[in-house]
Acid phosphatase
Amino acid sequence: MASKAFLLSLAALPLSKAETVLGVYIFSRHGDRTPKALAPTNLTSLGAEQVYTSGGWYRDQYVASDASTPIPALSRDIAALTQLTVTAPVDNVLQNSAQAFLQGLYPPAGSITTQELRNETEVTAPLGGYQYIPVNAVESAASSKSSENNPWLQGGSGCDNAVVSSNNYLSSSEYKTYYADSLDFYQSLLPVINSTFTADAANFKNAYSIYDYINVATIHNQTIPSSDLLTNETLLELKVLANVHEWGLAYNSSDEIRAIAGSTLAGQVLEALNDTITGKGKQPVHIQFGAYAVFSSFFGLAKLPSISDDFTGVVGYAASMAFELVTNASVSSGYPTTDDISVRFLFSNGSAADVTPTTYPLFGQSETTLPWTTFVSEMNKFAIGDTPDWCRVCGVTTGSCASSSSTGSSGDNASTTSKSGNGISLPVAGVIGALVTLAVVLGAEALIYVLSGLTLTKKSTLAAAQAAANGASGGSKA
Ligand SMILES: *[C@@H]1O[C@H](CO)[C@@H](O)[C@H](O)[C@H]1NC(C)=O
Ligand SMILES: *[C@@H]1O[C@H](CO)[C@@H](O)[C@H](O)[C@H]1NC(C)=O
Ligand SMILES: *[C@@H]1O[C@H](CO)[C@@H](O)[C@H](O)[C@H]1NC(C)=O
Ligand SMILES: *[C@@H]1O[C@H](CO)[C@@H](O)[C@H](O)[C@H]1NC(C)=O
Ligand SMILES: *[C@@H]1O[C@H](CO)[C@@H](O)[C@H](O)[C@H]1NC(C)=O
Ligand SMILES: *[C@@H]1O[C@H](CO)[C@@H](O)[C@H](O)[C@H]1NC(C)=O
Ligand SMILES: *[C@@H]1O[C@H](CO)[C@@H](O)[C@H](O)[C@H]1NC(C)=O
Ligand SMILES: *[C@@H]1O[C@H](CO)[C@@H](O)[C@H](O)[C@H]1NC(C)=O
Ligand SMILES: *[C@@H]1O[C@H](CO)[C@@H](O)[C@H](O)[C@H]1NC(C)=O
Ligand SMILES: *[C@@H]1O[C@H](CO)[C@@H](O)[C@H](O)[C@H]1NC(C)=O
């Protein structure tokens, strides 16, 4: 049935168009928000506008009937919920961002939804036909601390080994050097930040929180105490230091477990795109909202910093990356085979409406269009897609991991390197620690079916494992 709908919809596409986008996975950061240092964090009006216009750009790209590369069979004006999977962690800022993005993707359809009653009265749905598109919540465990309210990166991930790894950064010589060299700099900014940060906290350990606090103020505050201290040079220095700090927590080429968020995202992207293909386009659009740390971890794993050091920087508000399934095969005779399908990666470092997404080659390769099979094998070098693998590389044996470890692949002890049937090879560090925030992606499969009547992605036991693991994570501020 789905493929029949697919074929029918193709008839409507211009035949001259060689390339067809069959589906897309979009991962986006939230828009402008209040500072993490002043929790609870909220999306601002400016932030809502950023993600809304970003959604509008994607609409013009893939959804609208006059889109540049309309995805076949995708509903054009009225969202068909079975075609979309949208997720975001249980977090004000991320949930609201996803909602605003969806309003750009499928704006109110007033005139289309206006209906005439038997007595000839015309009725338009509330809010001009606002479309109610559910955003499935990703359980971000560590309960009290939702991701945008927590200044720390690795946190609620519940992945013990990743926590240990990120903590290791804080005792690395690189960190200590930066800490010592920047101490005077941060102390000199106390007149600007002392209503929120004590002298004890004015150092490199809080590089991101301090940058974030000042950056938000430069966007929103009419008056900033001692603002004369904030020269362009100082603002740049704050940003550079924050970037160094966050990158250090998110990725280390010789310790890939640190990038667990990127590994989990890779697993989700693979599964989602594969579902689009095996379902012959029944569910072509996947959207997930998450934190900048997920971008950083993924960028590191996908070797994007080999193209530019810029990829080691924290991405801008409303930044997004998109994985497109593309084909040059004629789609009028049926859904293309995987041999004819390629993947293209795009990134926009801000609202897609302001910064047009650009293609970049992944995995240190030169091609920006990779055959599906190549994409899969490259992603599988670091993707984590199921519970036993996650439990094993994270060194978690409690909660749902208890059952998964008793059924198999565990048994590795500290500092061994193990390999799963999936081709995942990550060093296992062992030890138990507690740290920071990455809640985000890990729970992504833990979909809570908020509204009834939806058929969405299949529930994976990974979710349960993660939720359980998250519950066990401490959240020390290392
Ligand atoms: C965020 O919104 C909540 C609820 O309206 C409010 O209590 C809180 O002060 C806001 N946070 C900031 C930083 O404005
Ligand atoms: C038409 O029907 C609707 C729904 O029953 C009702 O609310 C409305 O008042 C009716 N309009 C007229 C002009 O009778
Ligand atoms: C990266 O990991 C290696 C090996 O664990 C370690 O020697 C190095 O200090 C780490 N670098 C940072 C910046 O954490
Ligand atoms: C913050 O610094 C300013 C300028 O040095 C000083 O006047 C003020 O008392 C300080 N405020 C706090 C809360 O320490
Ligand atoms: C900006 O304004 C907010 C709200 O008034 C305040 O809490 C915050 O401390 C200010 N930030 C700076 C750097 O002055
Ligand atoms: C500081 O940067 C802003 C925005 O980039 C620019 O408009 C301004 O001229 C710069 N100021 C100085 C003193 O360079
Ligand atoms: C795609 O899904 C099919 C059917 O579930 C499965 O057999 C195949 O291994 C999957 N391929 C990838 C690359 O995940
Ligand atoms: C995105 O923008 C931020 C902020 O300007 C910058 O630090 C970062 O390097 C940029 N990333 C890329 C990939 O361009
Ligand atoms: C389709 O063909 C064009 C022109 O040869 C090429 O640039 C593009 O990469 C191809 N796309 C795919 C998905 O193979
Ligand atoms: C792992 O270490 C524990 C405690 O050191 C030991 O009892 C157990 O036998 C080890 N397991 C394997 C598979 O080596």
In short: Residues 34, 38, 40, 42 surround 2-acetamido-2-deoxy-beta-D-glucopyranose (ligand 1) (CB under 6 Å). The first strand starts at residue 20 and ends at 28. Residues 10-16, 140-156, 405-478 have pLDDT under 50 and may be disordered. The chain is about 40% helix and 10% strand.
